[in-house]
Amino acid sequence: MEKDKPLAGTVTLVAGATRGAGRGIATELGAAGAIVYVTGRSTRAIRSDMDRPETIEDTAEQVTAAGGQGIPVPCDHSDPAQVAALITRITGAHDRLDLLVNDIWGGDPLSEWGTPFWQLDLTKFQTMWQRAVLTHLITSQHVAPVMIAQKRGLIIEVTDGLGHDYRGNLAYDLTKTTVNRLALGQAEELRPHGITALAVTPGFLRSEAMLELFGVTEDNWRDGAEKDPHFIASETPHFVGRVIAALAADPEVHTRTGQVLSSWDLAEEYRIDDVDGRRPHWGRYFATI
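^ Short-chain dehydrogenase, sequence as received from the core. Prediction below:
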């Protein structure tokens, strides 16, 4: 195994890798040499109801360009039959699956920031729950038997927040906190089988949608702090991708099973910088404000 390709030959699935954190994670796993199955509902042929331009094919090409092997597979992870077919395809080609990253979200158009819980649209909340929680469980249900049979594997739940602080909206808070508990529950039940499950949160994520919201590009992103001063502490999707790649390559990752970890703390531990050479620390910044 090459030193700069610690995940060479590792078979991975990044569920929800069309854009944002999922794209950054998939690309950085590719940079570490992994075979990365990239899934989502947005393709060059059909846009999902998110109605954004990013596609799974674009992500897969970025994975390959980074040094891995990107394989795009359209999949609606709320449909167990589609997930089953996906896992059958992966195991049929490689006879194993080493890493699952559950990053499905799709809740941006459903979030009702500033709305008290007694005025929330429960239909929107139900859809958010189905997209951002049940999809993770459905995918893990189909992956777990594969990992149990091979007596090893790593499942990473991508969340938002460590679960200690209220996220300002009850629907959002319940959804993201449940993802943390999903990691814990999987860890406890998979522990006897030698499988690790944990959660990782990024900080203020500078995703494609967030750059558009602030009217900036990655080249001049600091100008976004004029609209929101906290944007100066943001991080690119590659930052959480790099720490997840480091976790996946860590031979002692099993000691973290059940934990909720952060991009900023892992970056300090693994001495990882963002693509712009910074090492943002959202936890430290948040504590000061």
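The radius of gyration is 18 Å.
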